[in-house]
Amino acid sequence: MSKYVKEMMMDQIRSDLGDSRSVLIMDLKGLDAITEFQLRRDLRKKSIKLRTLKNSLARKVFGEIGLGGLSKYLEGPTVLAWGGEGVAELAKEISTQVKNLKKPEIKGGAVDGVVIGPAQVEDITKLPSREALIARVVAMALAPAQRVVALANAPAAGLMSQLKTMSEGSGGDEGTAGPAEEATPEGA
């Protein structure tokens, strides 16, 4: 392979990854062509991209973009997976596909530039999705505001309750209040 072709392949890997710092490295050996096509199609529907790598070129590219630690996983047939909604969704989908097909294996990966092993990829699959995490953060952020509103409304609600009780009490006690008032002036 000429130097020019190798440089073009490296440029393609760089442009494909773009700003993505979360990737998974897999080995798809053992899959027939139809199964691999179906895997790629299913992943494409979820915006996850796959690229077969030439290990020596991938080592150079990963070294340039700060993912040099991935070079220990670049042995044998190697496929790079990236994209999706977030790293948790990427790991969950790839892990699910690997479990269903039983032949491919996850070699390792990187999460925001930090190199991880296959066991850590499995741990990532247990994380909630990005949307669920955002919902939790929003709920936590709104909780103090909701409590402040509830506390601010509490005295007003208590006052309204007392006024209501007093108005009901004065309406029902009119017959008993009259003689008590009359007794006071006579005693004076």
Model description:
- The protein is α+β, with helices and mostly antiparallel strands.
- Helices cover 62% and strands 14% of the residues.
- The protein is built from seven helices and five strands; from the N terminus they run αβαβαβαββααα.
- The chain has helices at 3-17, 33-45, 55-64, 87-101, 118-124, 130-172, 174-187, and strands spanning 23-27, 48-53, 78-83, 105-111, 114-116.
- The chain has a five-stranded antiparallel sheet with strand order 2-3-1-4-5.
- A hairpin with a 2-residue loop joins strand 4 and strand 5.
- Helix 1 crosses helix 3 (55-64).
- The radius of gyration is 34 Å and the shape is elongated.
Let me know the largest β-sheet.
Answer: 5 strands, antiparallel
- Average pLDDT number: 81
What is the CA-based Rg, rounded? 34 Å
Give start-end ranges of low-pLDDT stretches: 173-181
Structural class of the secondary elements?
Answer: alpha+beta
Give the helices and strands, then pairings:
Elements: H1 3-17, E1 23-27, H2 33-45, E2 48-53, H3 55-64, E3 78-83, H4 87-101, E4 105-111, E5 114-116, H5 118-124, H6 130-172, H7 174-187
Antiparallel strand pairs: 1-3, 1-4, 2-3, 4-5
Helix pairs in contact: 1-3
